[in-house]
Amino acid sequence: MYRAYKTGDGNYKDLKGFCKVTTLEEVSKHDYKLTPGIYVGARDVEYGEFQFEEKIEELRIKLLEQFEESNRLQERIKEDLEGLY
Predict the structure, then answer these.
(1) Which end of the chain is more exposed for a tag (fewer CB within 10 A), N or C?
(2) Backbone phi, then psi, for 10, in 5-degree steps?
(3) What distance separates the 2 farthest-apart alpha carbons in the chain?
(4) Any coiled-coil ranges, and where (predicted)?
(5) Whether residue 58 sits in one domain with residue 19
(6) Domain count along the chain
């Protein structure tokens, strides 16, 4: 990307969510903030409603399992600490 932009060989193009050439005018409109997301944006991700709901459910189950594991480890640490005295 950098070389394509720097050499000006015509191969450079903005890629949403990855890179973008902007103007000083646009940067000034954003109070000279250089946070990439302001200019680059986020790439479009297409999820069907079913896929999205399925993924959320999968993540919810995984998170609950991790909570259980965290609680188990916390109890084990408490027991180990109590065993020191």
Answers:
(1) C
(2) 90, -5
(3) 72
(4) 56-84
(5) no
(6) 2
Regarding whether 51 and 37 lie in a shared domain, the answer is: no
pTM of the model: 0.42
CA 61 to the chain's CA centroid: 21
Residue range 23-42: mean pLDDT, rounded: 90
Residues 40 and 53 grouped into a single domain: no
Q: What is the pLDDT of residues 38-51, one digit of tens each?
A: 888 877 666 666 68
Structural domain that includes position 77: 46-85
Per-residue pLDDT of 71-82, as tens digits, reads: 999 999 999 999
Report the alpha-carbon distance of residue 80 to residue 7 in Å, rounded: 62
50 and 85, same structural domain? yes
